[in-house]
Amino acid sequence: MSTETVEQTPTPITPRSVGTALGRVDGPEKVTGAARYGVEHHGEDGLADPLYAWLVQSTVAKGAVDAVDPAAALAHPGVVAVLDHTSAPRLEDTDDGELAVLQDARVHFRGQVVALVLAESVEAAREGAALVEVGYAAEDHDARFSADGATYRPDSVNPAFDTDSDQGDVDAALEAAAVVVEGEYSTPHEHNNPMEPHATLARWSDGDGDEVLRLVDSTQAVHGVASTVAPLFGLEPGQVRVTAPYVGGGFGSKGMPHASTVAAALAARAVAPRPVSLAVTRQQMFALTGYRTATVSRFRLGADTDGRLTAVEHRAYEQTSAVKEFAEQTAVATRMMYAAPNRRTSHRLAVLDVAVPSWMRAPGEMPGIFAHEVAMDELAEACGLDPVELRLRNEPDVDPESGKPFSIRRLPECLERGAERFGWAERSAQPRSTVDGDWWVGTGVAAATYPGYRMPGNAARVTALEGGRYDVAIGCVDIGTGARTVLTQIAADALAVEPADVDLHIADTSLPSASVAGGSSGTSSWGATVVAAAQAFAAAHGDAPEPGAEVVASADDDPLSGEHVFHSFGAVFAQVRVHRWTGEIRVPRLLGVYSVGRVVNPTTARSQLLGGLVMGLSAALHEESVRDPRFGHVVTQDLASYHVASHADVLDVDAEWLEESDDEFTPMGSRGIGEIGIVGTAAAVANAAYHATGVRVRSLPVTADRFLEVDR
Amino acid sequence: MDATIRLTVDGTAHEVTVDTRTTVLDALRERLGVTTVKKGCDHGQCGSCTVLLDGRRHLTCLTLAVAQDGAEVVTAGGLGEGEGLHPVQQAFLDHDGYQCGYCTPGQVCSAVGMLDEAKQGHPSHVTEDLEGDTDLTDDEIRERMSGNLCRCGAYAGILAAVREAAQA
Predict the structure, then answer these.
(1) Domain ends where: B46, B78, B110?
(2) For labelling, which of A365, A435, A467, B18 has a CA lying 20 to 30 Å from the CA of A5?
(3) Would you call A398 an interface residue with chain B, using a CB distance cutoff of 8 Å?
(4) Which helix (H) or strand (E) is A472 found in, with range?
(5) A4 noted as active-site residue
(6) What predicted TM-score, i.e. pTM, was given to this entire model?
(7) How many domains is chain B built from?
(8) Among A288, A317, A337, which residue terminates a domain?
(9) Which positions in chain B touch A122 (Cβ < 8 Å)?
(10) Is A588 on the interface with B (CB under 8 A)?
């Protein structure tokens, strides 16, 4: 039965379950391992007995495949087929160079998919892939990133921001400024590395039915996968069914389909109707599933003697790939962070023969605010001001860029509350003034921000069941955020029932359309839609509906086109210990205080914020993908050489939030929490390391070798 | 080359034919359909595939199945009594020691194995007194659980869960 989608303007709900610490509704499945992820469904109808796919990657960074010899692979027991650019099924649409898998001979980066082996076992597939002989006509490549080589000006930066901005007269203001801080700050390539590697289970049918392509995909957006993949194969989105009941993290890398998803679909088409199971290896993820580009930020800050900013200039230099453009919005947050009458930002890219960069948790804000907040620490010192006080003095009354008021801007309270909890008042103004045994000890602070996003394209369905219960359906995905739990709470409150009376269904394209679990927009976008559907249902059927009564609705409010701008804010405080003789750096305390709207579930929210802080700590101390420009690939392509924070790296980390409700933004009053925890954290650590040692580190990660040249 | 081995998995005896290259991890997931054990890196670097193998925590991705003929494997799916959860699993729920859940079965198995090691007096890298009883301080728990990566960063919850289980 198809029900027409009605437009409904959601109104604020009365929180009853919202705001309480309901345990994750899918917790028991997760702690017992019963939860099934991407390629764990081949016991199911239609997906049984798959062939295993293994990707063969290019060993040159640029050129053309001139021959693929599958003979040795095909002779290996269990190998069924080898697909290359001459034998793979054709795609209807090859405009997206990342997704045009095996469609021509061109090699755009080292690690690109150049062939694919299908076998009866995972062992045979892997060995077969090693036996495929690929010949290349290699060409000279350029995979060396430098700020000076980043001269290409993109038309816009992710997702659709202006590339440059220029307000007032920055040069004149800097000329006249009493204090000028000028510095270059950099962040390395970083890889998302969700614990579940990207994985796809695919089956192609003969096309008699409505459903031609069936995918179980490890994705942050089942509808996004369907709408992206369908046209590649000349299908309608409705002919592609995608499910993702459990997803083992994503942090942006699963926000859009990458080559591996298309490869699985191509392979399934080649061997239809046999299903195909394709699990990307951890090593392959370093070339095939997106990453955060390295960035260089050149800052100039001008201020008067009491620390009030007169000019801010942020020029960002980054890398994109020749085969597909991605322009990280590194300088965009600088446009709204602090008051300064004269502001200029720009983004320039180096277009290189490298793997395709993409989204990683807080793209733009994470590297950009790292640079800005270290520069602010330098300005505080240059002005002889406390770093908290400097930030308080530069609070804008309205959004400096648009001139619109913020719905809520409580950065000062975040700073003040954090300072109080952290014992900031006792901090010595002098760097390298505290020694504890063999350790220098220091503290640092940084501010954080993240925009409030509401995504279009959402609808939810509410159906009355027997006994006062409701079925609520929306095709969104819970990648570990707690979406299943908080949407149950939101639906319960909107329908004025208990959470136990809501049967929530998500993660399936057979359910109403939903936007990506990204941009910290999930709860806001889907939650507002669920509220709209519940309120439309109540309007149509009252509070004692006949079982079977049903409404599908979308939310037609559009806060982002209104009078206010919406941002979350935070203040991060770090204590750092640096070993005087080895340079070893430890972070015994990390605290974030946030203004994020109403918190829907304090348990899952706290875990999200702590998780962001931990990923920020990991970026501060450990993470760096090292690309060898001679060959073009990342050589630190596993979890031994690309270290992410382990349990022993994470000491006392805490988060709290201010009580508030952003009723103008969503009917729940919430504003999004998934990304702000990673923003500012690395700057707080670097600033604390400066306070501990007197060594100013302007590039991540902050490693032990930075402190070995110090005069002790 | 194939070989037939016996494995007892979560209390159920299996006879399974594997390739001699097959790891215990792939034997469980792909031959026996036991997906309560997860593959995060296949290189012994993340801990997601941790099970109790003959009572001790073990990385199944680094273990060839043919070398484990007759072994008893307990995954997170077999830790509890009947339908009930193991106390460590309940503690993970109570302290939200997970988000996406993918590393969680390995974390839980690792915690169960680690608590037993501590009880037997095994020292760790941070143990000061190698002769005395092991006091499971927070630093000890962090160190002993560091073979299990959690990219969601749920370490604070995991620590609280293991601390509680250690005191039970």
Answers:
(1) B78
(2) A467
(3) no
(4) strand A470-473
(5) no
(6) 0.98
(7) 2
(8) A288
(9) 26, 30
(10) no
What range defines the domain where residue B93 resides? 87-167
Could you tell me the pLDDT band of residue A68, with boundaries at 50, 70 and 90? very high
Same-domain status, B52 and B19: yes
Please report, for the domain that includes residue B23, its CATH number: 3.10.20.30
CB pairs under 8 A between A and B: 185
Residue of chain B whose alpha carbon sits nearest to that of A612: B153
Q: Is the dihedral of CA A691, A694, A700, A705 positive or negative?
A: negative
Q: How many domains does chain A have?
A: 3
ipTM for the whole complex: 0.98
Which domain CATH number covers A164?
A: 3.30.365.10
Q: Give the tens place of pLDDT for each residue, A222-263.
A: 999 999 999 999 999 999 999 999 999 999 999 999 999 999
Task: Tell me: do B61 and B96 sit in the same domain.
Answer: no
Count the alpha carbons within 13 Å of B77 in the hemisphere toward its beta carbon: 18
Percent of chain A whose predicted confidence (pLDDT) is above 70: 99
H/E stretch holding A567: strand A567-579
Of the candidates B12, B45, B78, which is a domain's last residue? B78
Q: Is A28 on the interface with B (CB under 8 A)?
A: yes
CB contact under 8 A, B100 and A195: yes
Supply the pLDDT for residue A517: 98
- Which among A26, A436, A427 has a CA at the least distance from the CA of A246? A26
At A313, give phi and psi (nearest 5°): -125, 130
A280 lies in which domain range? 51-140+193-288
Residue B143 backbone dihedrals phi, psi, to 5 degrees: -65, -45
Instruction: Write out pLDDT tens, residues A104-134.
Output: 999 999 999 999 999 999 999 999 999 999 9
Of A127, A611, A654, the CB nearest to B153: A611
